[in-house]
Amino acid sequence: MNQPNNPLHPHHHESTNFKTLLDSMFVPKNQELWDQLWEQVQKEEQIAALQKATGVSDLALLQHFVDIGVTAENLTAMALFPLMAVAWADGIMQVEEKAAILQAALEFHVEKGHPSYEVLQNWLEHKPQEKSMKVWQVYVRALRESLSPEQDKAFHDETIGRARKVADATGGILGRFGVRISDKEEMVLKELEAAFQ
């Protein structure tokens, strides 16, 4: 009998071993039905992971994201990119900007062990490649195609709002001289906005 802590226990159904065990229960003629069932289980897990990572509760939208290949990992990385782009706009990431990014990462549940954690750490140390902005814009436009006007506005406001918060992070220092956001940061914000045009 399987114990709950056994990797073959149903609560560990993401395990390849568990799938192999279940596969052995089905005769070949039932294999197609089993494959469909397994695909459905995987989709439901992906939807649940996306829901947790994004806070989005619209199941139809989450289902669409899964259907076009969006995962919790790549969606989280894409959500973090605008913050990085703004922080690196001047060529140097300020301490305040890094703190704002780490705070946003916590809101996305990105911590050690999360698939996007290594991406986050790399971006904190190295400026994203030039082509990253174009890739991000294409990704955002693809996501927006199925959004309702209300969802699209919320997506825009959250995305740009977080990026602006990072740009404002050094405002306590620069704000005294009348400049809160640098010209280079403003240019990056405009590039981010372009994905929503």
Beta content:
under 5%
The ordered H/E elements are HHHHHHHHHH
Question: Describe the biggest sheet?
Answer: none
Helix/strand-derived category reads mainly alpha
Low-confidence segments, given as residue ranges, are 6-13, 172-176
Task: Quote the distance from N terminus to C terminus.
Answer: 58 Å
How many structurally independent domains? 2
Query: What do the pLDDT scores average to?
Result: 77
Secondary structure tally, helices: 10
User: What portion of residues is helical?
Assistant: 55-70%
Gyration radius from CA atoms, angstroms: 21 Å
Can you give a write-up of this model?
The longest helix has 24 residues, at 31-54. Helix 2 runs parallel beside helix 4, helix 5 (95-107) runs antiparallel to helix 8 (149-168) and helix 8 (149-168) packs antiparallel against helix 10 (183-194). This protein has two domains: 10-57; 71-194. The chain has helices spanning 16-23, 31-54, 59-67, 72-87, 95-107, 117-125, 132-144, 149-168, 171-174, 183-194. It is globular, with a radius of gyration of 21 Å. With 197 residues, it is mainly alpha-helical.
Topology:
Blueprint: H1 16-23, H2 31-54, H3 59-67, H4 72-87, H5 95-107, H6 117-125, H7 132-144, H8 149-168, H9 171-174, H10 183-194
Helix pairs in contact: 2-3, 2-4, 4-5, 4-6, 4-7, 4-8, 4-10, 5-8, 8-10
